[in-house]
Fold this sequence. Notes:
Oligomer: homodimer
Largest interface: A-B, 36 and 37 residues
Largest sheet of chain A: 2 strands, antiparallel
Number of strands of chain A: 2
Number of helices of chain A: 8
Radius of gyration of chain A: 19 Å
Amino acid sequence: MTSSRITVLDYTLLGLLQSESRSGYAIRQVFEHTALGNFSSSPGTIYPALKKLKKLHLVRQESQEKKAPYQITNQGKGLLIKWFTQPITKEEVAKTPHLLILRFAFMDHLVKKPLKIAFVTRFRDLVKVYLLELKSFHKQQAIHFPPAAKLAFEHGLIHYEGHLKWSNQALKTLLNTKD
Amino acid sequence: MTSSRITVLDYTLLGLLQSESRSGYAIRQVFEHTALGNFSSSPGTIYPALKKLKKLHLVRQESQEKKAPYQITNQGKGLLIKWFTQPITKEEVAKTPHLLILRFAFMDHLVKKPLKIAFVTRFRDLVKVYLLELKSFHKQQAIHFPPAAKLAFEHGLIHYEGHLKWSNQALKTLLNTKD
DNA sequence: GTCGACATGTAAATTGTTACATGATTTA
DNA sequence: TAAATCATGTAACAATTTACATGTCGAC
């Protein structure tokens, strides 16, 4: 009864397969040994999701045997590209910035440098705006906060300053790379 | 059929009520206008959770009327304190650092300064360890990464460096506060 | 020959969110 | 008096995760 809407997990799996075909188990290893979206590497997470992608013709297996690697289809690639090129919203920057980084992480083979640069630039600009809002709120409200709550809020500030720092660093790197 | 396990949302609600009694609607306002754990402020999120806390005697309403504020019970406070004093694990630092900051955010009225300091110190030390692991991985593997993937990984590095920076800043502040 | 890693699978539970519904009370 | 906001509620859904089950295959 798995729905056929494309979830973050689905995009993550497609993103992984976009650079290299892998078996279900190999994918689980990646999830287990890296942070990758903080998804569980357990079988119940990976295998049903891969099956669903297969049913939707976003991935395919050449062979029927176990261990048969999944490879992304052109349809799958198309969907990823659509994901990559969705305009970044202020909401996403405020609520799910990690998803934006995830999106960026898989862009290597499917989009050209200008688009990557546009993506990071837009991200940076929205982060700047959001940071101003946070700082303004901080200035006005933080006086009323008890110490720990205030510090927790400041954690958020530092967090977004990190996003900004990364954006600038990433842009510099992208501009110095010949794609 | 809501289970009676205490979820992150439950702790967040208790945390909010620990400093001040509020009605369900007032709590929704907080969720709507601040980031607070990124939970939805929709009625379907807040009201059932509050009902559950009431059934578990972790909060109470003096009056039966609508708008009646919820206040945390001693039992609720006890549970929060248990949450606050759970030892921080390496796993939490690697997978859910935001939950640790959330925990810290509510500590003001229920725990004394030494415990807050111990909490941040432990957090900082585990962040340091994790950062070393990340950097070591980066040194060994990043060469094999394509540009965007490499940058995404470096985002993680900056992120944890932010945690470290915050920890040090927070410790300084805590030591200069007379609680 | 058995113990651990390889490899896949599914049912049930968990945790929250969306969408819808309902009525009171302000405000314009 | 119409529209907006206040205020609470619930049923259905969504997105994973947990826990269990099953068999293979190599190492010791």
